[in-house]
Amino acid sequence: MTLDAALAIGETVTLGRHTFEADEIKAFASKYDPQRFHVDEEAAKASVFGRLCASGWHTAAMWMKHTVASFPATAERARARGATLTFGPAAGLRELKWLKPVYVGDTITFTRTAESHRALVSKPGWRLLSSRCEAHNQNGEPVMRFVSLTLVKAE
Fold first, then answer.
1. pLDDT of 55 strictly over 90
2. What angle do CA 60, 65, 70 make, to 5 degrees?
3. If phi over 0 gives left and psi between -120 and 50 gives alpha, with beta otherwise, what is residue 144?
4. Whole-model pTM?
5. Nearest-angstrom CA–CA distance, 120 and 127
6. Other CB atoms closer than 10 Å to residue 14's CB: what's the count?
7. Cα 20 from chain centroid (whole Å)
8. What ranges in 19-152 are assigned the alpha helix state H?
9. Could you tell me if 52 and 37 are in contact, meaning their C-beta atoms sit under 8 angstroms apart?
10. What are the tens digits of pLDDT across the range 57-81?
């Protein structure tokens, strides 16, 4: 079995779905991104968005929630392929883009595609996994995209 197979290089995994509701959008934004188009429905109507929409950070946080929840199933798939997979911390993001607003009632599907990995000289046994991460609305339109860098140990 190759390390690429254990890390599922090239395989797209659906992490989960989430429907964004007005109360949750306002609560998140009130605490972390209190811009008028995220916290006030009337002000949002006069904004460039035309109605209340979720903070991009809220969308990214939901992606992260679903990612962490997917770790046990990902590790189990690796075990089925004959490998042990341990997730470490994130090492960063690249090319984060919010492509379309996430409006009240939108159901977003979150995915991750492992693309490549390399050994970490400073941490023997660990690798830096690069994954393409995406979020699409119920119409299949991309709303967010980025590259995630994660430390993983695969044996």
1. yes
2. 120
3. beta
4. 0.91
5. 5
6. 11
7. 15
8. 22-32, 36-39, 41-45, 56-80
9. yes
10. 999 999 999 999 998 988 888 888 8
